[in-house]
Amino acid sequence: MGNALLEKYSEGRLCLADTTGEPVLWTNSIADAFDLLKRLHADDTLKFDFLSDLTAYDNGDRRDGAKRFVLVYQILSTVTHARLRIKLGVDEGEEPLSLVSLWPGANWLEREVFDMYGIKFNGHPNLRRILMDERFTGHPLRKEYPLRERQPFPDNIPLHLGAHPLPHDVIHDDIYNPNILINIGPAHPAFHGTLRVMCRLNGETIEDAACEIGYLHRGMEKLGEYKTYHQWLVYTDRMNYCSALNNNIAYSMTVEKLMGITVTERCMWLRMMLMELARIIDHIICVAINALDMGAMTVFWLMYYWREEAYTMIESLCGMRLTTTATRIGGMSYDIPDDFIPRMKKFVKDFPSCLVEINRLLTGNRIWIDRTKNVGKISKEDALKLSITGPCLRASGIDFDLRRDRPYYAYNEVVFDVAIGTHGDVYDRYLVRMEEMRQSLRIIEQCIERLPGGPIWVEDPRVRIPEKADVYTKMEVMIHHFKIFMEGINVPSGEVYNAVEGPNGELGFYIVSRGGPKAWRMRVKAPSFMLFQSYEHSIIGYKIPDAIANLGSLNIIAGELDR
Amino acid sequence: MGTINVSKEYTLKERTYLPALFQGMFITMKRFIQGFILHKKYTIMYPEEKRIYSQRFRGMHFISVDENKVENCTACFLCETVCPAECIHIVAMERDPATNPYGVRKEKKPLSFDLDVMRCCFCGFCEEACPMDAIKLSRNYELSVLSRQEAIYDLKYLTREVIGRG
Ligand code: SF4
Ligand code: SF4
User: Fold this and answer.
1) Peptide bond connecting A23 to the previous residue in cis, omega within 30 degrees of 0
2) Distance from B58 to chain A by nearest Cα, in Å?
3) Is the shortest distance between the CB of B75 and ligand 2 below 6 Å?
4) What is the average pLDDT across B89-118?
5) Most C-beta atoms within 10 A of its C-beta, which of A91, A274, A449, B42?
6) pLDDT band at A251; cut points 50, 70, 90
7) Torsions phi, psi of A205, nearest 5?
8) Which CATH class is domain A220-562?
9) Band of the pLDDT at A334, cuts 50, 70, 90?
10) Are residues B26 and B107 in the same domain?
11) CATH code 3.30.460.80 for A2-117
12) How many domains does chain B have?
């Protein structure tokens, strides 16, 4: 963003920079914050049309102003690609204005802030708890809430329709009831993961829907404040477990940014290669399961063979197929094994044949087209309003990809195309994913070519885990080794938001550090969260089988949705 | 670095339905011949045939032993500290200096070493942290047990004989 433009908005407000130099604008009051966001949203030159994230952190130690909590808005422009973080201090009992009128996607985000911190939003249409049960007492992310204070409930939340009560004035006769309520999930074979949707049906058409989430909530963000940066790495595996490598890398990258570490060239290119491999795996799962849900079993078998190949490669690299824990802060757990590159080359050479086959089976197949075309449509405007990201955003026709538009690592040095769609339906999402797999292969090819030799670890004593051989023989190295594992990595205070283009959208980590080996606030901006919110809207007016097709194409991973 | 619009309209060929159907049938037949007639296999007959993982695989834990079959662990608590799942529980004791053949190299030893494998997330951090090369993860991935108690590996079980990484 041009500084002159920023100045226009920073009058009278505190404008700081975070650890990586990104602008942070402190607003002075609740009305001021809303006014500023409204003006930024409407500004024709800056075009802040996208709400990336809305969260809060506990300011119990009053290091960031005199208020108890700090609300954090991350906004983004899909046109100019600028990012801006806006902060607002709120005290207990104060009610900031809801952003739902500007970005309807803020709905769930505000509910989450309410759930976790107890901050009420003025003007929110349906301020209920979201991840926790309605009977839960207390707000888990407040610092005074103890870590292991579990509150088990014997039964489930009864069926409801979110903010929309059932219309009672409809006449019911014995034969035809236009208001049938059905519950799908949280354990339903067509709903992969613990997702629950409650629908009101008229005949077979869904007329209203509400999603209930939180069945897989494990308190990861809370744990992020209690585990060391090193330990928390394993939790990232369990978010989007279809592409754990991507999470590992995105997380390590964030902590590295916070510490001002630049990884070595080899590490960087290797990580890029792995991220693209993870993207391919994730898209394979999405397309294959989407087809499987609609009865196309062959696609599933054909594609899963390649997923297996990819997982074998990943296993030979880091020792685990799914929960990889492959990175370390400042490096990787292992350098690649000798046969990795030849295998990868073979994969890049042979995998396109699978894509050709799938293309033949699905793309021109009338059954597939009829099931997917014009189903689960999300228009361009809705996609922006609901803050969905990733392939689903691109399928709606918005040309935005973080890899190209806000490049990290060496993505500005590799050549690839961004695939976009037009209609934002299931068919376009499928086509976008197929094309992205081809583009990922292109990137992998370039990574293989350019993968330099040299060390995989950055030689920074703060993070470098010593070589085992030295630990056994050299005293100083042994002491250093003890220090790293006993005390953890000492991260200076500061804050950073770092997002990568994950397979199903913008995966961001927002870390506030107050120094020491543990984070003060560990926020995960998970793409599935916003995608599932859009699901509530995009299934209305369609039939139940369409809802299944729609869900498969959104690629919602419960581990990431609930965290 | 450009943008490709991958959106497709309904074409006449797709409307006619049959070409795509035959194309699909062709692929199915090709695969059928490969599988049933040419016996091209993609699966293995587990458990008769075992899948071999790489040397880096993180499976069932063990503690390496030295030439006298004494565990290499010196109860330094690094693994217990680093374990994100909090599944290692060690009680340390000192070796009697009079009868200790190892001298300063192994002054302490674990009196008990319990690893609750049902909590474990197989991250391998314990192996990475161990300064004595004692706790390790083997290539054994068959971890099923009949009772909860058996899933808590004690020192005796952990120091069982494992060759290489199993
Ligand atoms: S593998 Fe990880 S979770 Fe399991 S015992 Fe070792 S450190 Fe703990
Ligand atoms: S197994 Fe290794 S890390 Fe754990 S207490 Fe023993 S010597 Fe220390």
Assistant:
1) no
2) 5
3) yes
4) 81
5) A274
6) very high
7) -90, 135
8) mainly alpha
9) confident
10) no
11) yes
12) 2
Sheet containing A83-90: give its strands across.
Answer: A14-17, A23-27, A83-90, A69-76, A50-58
pLDDT at A528 over 60: yes
Are A323 and B121 inside 8 Å of each other by CB? Answer: yes
Q: Is B8 on the interface with A (CB under 8 A)?
A: yes
| pLDDT at position B71 | 82
Q: How far apart are CA A369 and CA B20, in angstroms?
A: 11
Ligand nearest to the CA of A486: 2
Q: List pLDDT tens digits, range A147-178.
A: 888 888 888 877 777 777 766 565 566 666 77
Q: Is the CB of B134 under 6 A from ligand 2?
A: yes
Instruction: Tell me the ligand closest to A237's alpha carbon.
Output: 1
pLDDT at A173 (0 to 100): 62
Model confidence, pTM: 0.89
Determine whether the interchain pair B24/A315 forms a contact, defined as Cβ–Cβ distance below 8 Å.
no
Domain interval for residue B37: 13-42
Tokens of B110: 């674990």
Mean local confidence (pLDDT), A7-35: 78
Could you read off the pLDDT of A355-376 as tens digits, one per residue?
A: 888 888 888 788 888 888 888 8
Q: Do B140 and B99 fall within a single domain?
A: yes
In order, the DSSP letters of chain B are --EEE---PPPHHHHH-HHHHHHHHHHHHHHHIIIIIS----S--TTTSPPPPPTT---SEEE-B-TTS-B------HHHHH-TT--EEEEEEEPPTTT-TTGGGG-EEEEEEEEETTT-----HHHHH-TTS-EEE-S------SSTGGGEE-HHHHTS---TT-
Residue-range domain boundaries for chain A? 2-117, 220-562
Cross-chain Cβ contact B13/A485 below 8 Å? no
Which pLDDT value is given to residue A4? 55
Whether residue B92 is found in the same domain as residue B144: yes
Interface of A with B in 259-298 (CB under 8 A): 298
Query: Which segment of A451-455, A518-522, B25-29, B100-104 scores lowest on mean pLDDT?
Result: B100-104
